[in-house]
Amino acid sequence: MDLRLLEVATRIAAALERLAPPPPVPLDLGQAEAFVWAPESGRLVPVAVVARVPIGLLQGVAQQKRILLENTERFAAGRTANNALLWGTRGMGKSSLVKAVHAEVNAAHPGRLVLIEIHREDIATLPELLNQLRGQPRRCLILCDDLSFEAQDTDYKALKSVLDGGIEGRPENVLFYATSNRRHLMPRDMIENERSTAINPSEATEEKVSLSDRFGLWIGFHNCDQPTYFAMVEGYAAALGLKIGPEALRAEANEWSVTRGARSGRVAWQFIQDLAGRLG
């Protein structure tokens, strides 16, 4: 009887070992210069090559470039810096600027700064990510692209607590950058609905706009005029070595923007992609 019980107990123990999750892999930020947060596995996935353009090709955003670069350099040097919200017109290089600034700072201080992307739908897991990064030797720049919130969405409350006000606070080695088309990250009708149903309307409005206040830097990106658009196109054409005269380049670029109904850095890049393909 004892032998039979021992055999059953051994089989149960073996089954439990198979069901047990594997031990967590130690976090190694030295694997790459950039990562993507995968909350389902609780891991940072290394990115071999970051999709970005050199900072010198970003035209029409000189002031925004200077402000963000100075803030990021201070952070990489171990000094105090602010979380930043890059807001405004779509296609004007908000996320491109963050990635270009990361490359620029790392070129000046090799290996100092890690870029980590977190997707909008994973914002609720941001505290878990910060717990993993807390105490790491490398400085970590977290980027959330196209951040905004809709009605009935409560994730913004978790983000508010993490950015400023939580008992643990933001880790000293972590900075948070977000891009958005909205300055206050909330649709106006959401704020107005809260105002109309709240006991104290002003308090409801304060609750909604206070998320943006957690960002020490608000960097605006505005509509692109024609000279700036042409400067973008000419900069891209020169960088790719396209064989086309300046007058023809501007004429085709203008026609392209008219068909798209907009002028922006994104439209300029899409035009250059089309032109480069046609020129072989």
Features:
280 residues, alpha/beta, 7 strands, seven-stranded mixed beta sheet, 2 domains, Rossmann fold, elongated
Brief summary:
By secondary structure, this protein is an alpha/beta fold.
The CATH architecture of the largest domain can be named as: 3-Layer(aba) Sandwich
Nearest-integer average pLDDT: 85
Beta fraction of the residues? 5-15%
Tally of DSSP β-strands = 7
Task: Determine the CATH topology of the largest domain.
Answer: Rossmann fold
What is the overall silhouette? elongated
- Supply Rg: 24 Å
Q: Assign a percent range to the helix content.
A: 40-55%
CATH superfamily membership of the largest domain, which one? P-loop containing nucleotide triphosphate hydrolases
Distance between the amino and carboxyl termini? 82 Å
The total tally of domains equals 2
Unreliable stretches (pLDDT < 50, length at least 5) are none
Strand order, sheet with most strands: 2-1-4-5-6-3-7
Main structural class: alpha/beta
Instruction: Give me the number of helical elements.
Output: 10
Strand and helix order = HEEHEHEHEHEHHEHHH
What would CATH call the class of the largest domain? Answer: Alpha Beta
